[in-house]
Design brief:
2 domains; Tetracycline Repressor, domain 2; about 70% helix; about 0% strand
Amino acid sequence: MTTESRPLRADARRNRDRLVAAAAEVFAERGLGAPLEDVARRAGVSIGTLYNRFPTRDDLVDAVFRERLGALDRVAAEALADPDPWNGFVLFVEGLFELQAADLGLNEALASMFPAAAGMEEACGRGMRDLGLVIGRARDAGVLRADFEATDVALLVLGMSRVIGDSLEVAPGAWRRCLGFVLDGLRPEAARPGGVPALTAEELAQVAERGRRRRG
């Protein structure tokens, strides 16, 4: 039985909630590599209390962003409900990057594509599934180039995470201009033979793993 599955005493629950709230603020401001001592200090607890509740950084990241990624479920539902398949596709992609731009920690977490934290991995898996539905609907309607795949969006997330992270304090809306150029190129009338196939799910997982090893 994990620490998260056992019922918590009232004081332990308060400590956990303070830690999650503090971590959300610190990660949003400074990214996922922020010292956990700073999280404990902001929460008003000892570092020992933090590690008692969250033995690894991944455990804390999972607690912070699992619910936050629920917003992506809502974005997907709105995208699939939009009667215009192209508008639905744009709504999903813009909503995804808006989430990243609003939170530096989430931007870094999504850039890892397949986070080690179980809850986030599950949420990202749902996002990829919903994205496949949004893309398939737009392709079937003939409004999205026929060779575009969900794994292509995953690579866009990698690139856009860098744009967002590097430009956020200087030009917070720079990513929107970049995305506009990308979206224009995804229209069928702008399509040109790419010559290189989309990544498979297995290749994408390898890309994600290599990136995690480089970063940590």
